[in-house]
């Protein structure tokens, strides 16, 4: 299938720099062990996309299916409580009893729209209103795979509240949760960029609408086909991730970025950000920094582990570079 929307490495660097500037990535606090633990489909397939606000995760099921690597909603209760999650938003069809979360003290909202399509204004308004309510705390969002619909709505929030461009938002969401935002959703976000920026600057809640809008008519002719392609691809990817995690566990180490440091100099055009080392863009979400893992939501077997694959000198150099840039007002 020919791509109709190309994202470039410059978009990824701009998204990363913008995220660091707004403290969505705290270099000193990034826990690579935790990232890969929850990245594993057996452990929930979840990622924090907006620090302190959004967790994206794969849709749970009461009837767990081994072939699609789904898990029961009770799997998430303890970790959600440890992360301060106060609300769950479901964007796909009902595949579990929402009372599982409600009984645990976590509010639950249904905002369904069709897989691989774009949301109506009514859905967007409700989503933003929930997220902007201080009582919602951290919001955990899922659709079927936790990629397309989930990533699209979170990207709208990023554009409204942090003034990301559409491309920066898409890049950052994908850095955090690879595979997010699909097909027409990319073009939709570009179309919504100016609108989200205006709404963010005005301080209006949600979309500022007082009456629910009718859902706009969408071309659903290719949605089912695209959704099937995504499902097949993600099941294959999940299987590979589980095999990779198992091999890493047996080896007693993770396969991480081996030797890369970053020099953010945003006084120049972001395309001139210097990269020392050779690595792929996907590794940007996997910066391995030495840190003692202490999250009570993690199993005891990995709590208290001192981890990190950077050499001490490279780790210090990276952190010092970021701190220096921050003090100079560059980040």
TrEMBL record:
<comment type="similarity">
    <text>Belongs to the protein-tyrosine phosphatase family. Non-receptor class CDC14 subfamily.</text>
</comment>
<keyword id="KW-0904">Protein phosphatase</keyword>
<feature type="domain" description="Tyrosine specific protein phosphatases">
    <location>
        <begin position="125"/>
        <end position="188"/>
    </location>
</feature>
<dbReference type="InterPro" id="IPR000387">
    <property type="entry name" value="Tyr_Pase_dom"/>
</dbReference>
<feature type="region of interest" description="Disordered">
    <location>
        <begin position="235"/>
        <end position="257"/>
    </location>
</feature>
<feature type="domain" description="Tyrosine-protein phosphatase">
    <location>
        <begin position="44"/>
        <end position="201"/>
    </location>
</feature>
<dbReference type="InterPro" id="IPR020422">
    <property type="entry name" value="TYR_PHOSPHATASE_DUAL_dom"/>
</dbReference>
<dbReference type="GO" id="GO:0004725">
    <property type="term" value="F:protein tyrosine phosphatase activity"/>
</dbReference>
<dbReference type="InterPro" id="IPR044506">
    <property type="entry name" value="CDC14_C"/>
</dbReference>
<keyword id="KW-0378">Hydrolase</keyword>
<dbReference type="InterPro" id="IPR016130">
    <property type="entry name" value="Tyr_Pase_AS"/>
</dbReference>
<dbReference type="InterPro" id="IPR050561">
    <property type="entry name" value="PTP"/>
</dbReference>
<feature type="compositionally biased region" description="Basic and acidic residues">
    <location>
        <begin position="312"/>
        <end position="322"/>
    </location>
</feature>
<dbReference type="InterPro" id="IPR029021">
    <property type="entry name" value="Prot-tyrosine_phosphatase-like"/>
</dbReference>
<feature type="region of interest" description="Disordered">
    <location>
        <begin position="294"/>
        <end position="331"/>
    </location>
</feature>
<dbReference type="Pfam" id="PF22785">
    <property type="entry name" value="Tc-R-P"/>
</dbReference>
<protein>
    <recommendedName>
        <fullName>protein-tyrosine-phosphatase</fullName>
        <ecNumber>3.1.3.48</ecNumber>
    </recommendedName>
</protein>
């Amino acid at each position: 299938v020919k791509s109709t929307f190309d994202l470039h490495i410059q978009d990824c660097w701009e998204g990363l720099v913008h995220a660091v500037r707004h403290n969505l990535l705290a270099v000193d606090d990034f826990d690579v062990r935790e990232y890969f633990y929850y990245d594993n489909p057996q452990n929930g397939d979840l990622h924090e996309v907006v620090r302190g606000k959004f967790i994206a995760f794969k849709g749970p099921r009461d009837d767990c299916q081994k072939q699609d690597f789904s898990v029961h909603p009770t799997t998430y209760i303890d970790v959600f409580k440890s992360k301060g999650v106060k609300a769950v938003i479901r964007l796909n069809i009902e595949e579990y009893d929402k009372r599982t979360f409600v009984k645990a003290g976590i509010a639950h909202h249904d905002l369904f729209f069709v897989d691989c399509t774009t949301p109506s204004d009514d859905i967007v308004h409700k989503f933003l209103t929930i997220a902007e309510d201080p009582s919602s705390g951290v919001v955990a969002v899922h659709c079927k795979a936790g990629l397309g619909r989930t990533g699209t709505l979170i990207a709208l929030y990023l554009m409204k509240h942090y003034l990301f461009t559409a491309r920066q938002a898409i890049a950052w969401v994908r850095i955090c949760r690879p595979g997010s935002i699909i097909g027409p959703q990319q073009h939709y976000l570009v179309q919504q960029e100016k609108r989200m920026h205006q709404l963010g600057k005005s301080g209006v809640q949600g979309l500022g609408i007082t009456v629910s809008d009718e859902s706009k008519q969408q071309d659903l002719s290719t949605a089912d086909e695209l959704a099937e392609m995504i499902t097949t691809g993600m099941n294959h990817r999940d299987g590979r991730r589980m095999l990779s995690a198992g091999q890493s566990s047996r080896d007693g180490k993770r396969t991480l970025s081996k030797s890369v440091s970053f020099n953010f100099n945003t006084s120049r055009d972001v395309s001139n950000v210097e990269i020392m080392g050779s690595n792929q863009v996907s590794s940007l979400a996997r910066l391995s920094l030495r840190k003692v893992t202490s999250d009570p939501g993690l199993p005891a077997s990995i709590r208290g582990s001192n981890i990190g694959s950077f050499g001490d000198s490279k780790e210090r150099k990276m952190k010092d570079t970021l701190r220096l840039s921050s003090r100079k007002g560059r980040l």
